[in-house]
Amino acid sequence: MRPRTERALPLLIVLGLAVAGCGGEPSGTTPTGATSAGTTASPAPTGTTAPPATGTTAPPATGTTAPPTTSSRVSTAPPDAQKRLVAGRYQPLWPFSTQTEAEAWRRAHREDGREAWHLDPGRTAIAFARDYLGFTEIDQAVKTVRDGLHARVHVGFRAEEGPRPLVTAVVHLVRYGSAPDAPWEVVGTDDTSLSLTTPKYGAAVGSPLTVGGRITGVDESIKIQVRRPGKAALLGEQCCLSAGGDDSPWSAKVSFTPDPGRTLTIVASTGGHVADVERFAVTGVTIAR
To answer: Residue 269: CA atoms inside 13 Å, Cβ hemisphere, count?
Structure first.
């Protein structure tokens, strides 16, 4: 199933080298700490400070976890793509809304070292799930796969039963800028057993909005949220859609209040078996003018 971050229409990020896929283990795979499955992973950054990144290197667990992602939609740009992939390939979802914001942080960090977690894709991905989306149980970067300016972080949590953490999503991040110390930016997720294929990535949308995809599971309850990057308050929410089956389609409509700005984050999540949120998927769209 191809990552939604490849369904891109023009917006803001200047990017480079695209990853060849998440299905394998490229040389850029970066463990997030000790190899013991019993090691506790690092918590997400909260506020303006970030804890040390410890983590685990356990592979995605089976059962309620999402299956391995596929790479059918992953970009295969050549090595010099940093200069040729101009602004507009991906949607900036979090933590920065614009290149100007990212550059302001970079200058401040060079002066006083503030918020160094922006330089760690694992910690950024966990903070995205916990602090921005509000999925407080997600506290582990189970595995981080890096390739050039791209990173894919398998985020999740440790259930009461089972030796390995459960993976809830594969978060796709890119460097926001071409500088060696450019911060990491979340641009979407790689779809697994919960996909969010409607609306298309980068599409111009209005309210009410039809949201849909496919899901594999039993007695699932899908919640839809519409968020504005940089703001904690929801613009719209629809809960909850009963779903399930084997790669079965799901669809719902959600109304939202348009907010100044161009980018919206659409979030689909499901859970309730061993945790409130066991899988989630996000995509980035724009507000129709």
So the answer is: 22
Tokens of 192: 């697994």
- Residue 152 CA to residue 60 CA, distance in Å, equals 13
Give me the amino acid identity at 30: T
Q: Find the domain containing 48 and state its range.
A: 4-287
Q: Could you tell me the pTM of the whole model? A: 0.73
* Tally of CB atoms within 10 A around 286: 18
What does DSSP say about strands 209-227 and 140-147: parallel, antiparallel, or unpaired?
Answer: unpaired
Which pLDDT value is given to residue 43?
Answer: 36
Strands 279-287 and 204-205: parallel
Closest CA to 166 of 263, 41, 265, 45: 41
Report the number of distinct structural domains present in the chain. 1
Find, among 152, 241, 133, 150, the residue nearest to 191 by Cα: 152
Using alpha carbons, select from 118, 90, 93 the residue that is nearest to residue 104. 118
221-257 pLDDT, tens digit per residue, is: 999 999 998 787 899 999 999 998 999 999 999 999 8
- CA 117, 276, 278, 137 torsion: positive or negative? positive
Q: Look at residues 211, 228, 232 and name the one whose alpha carbon lies nearest to residue 264.
A: 228
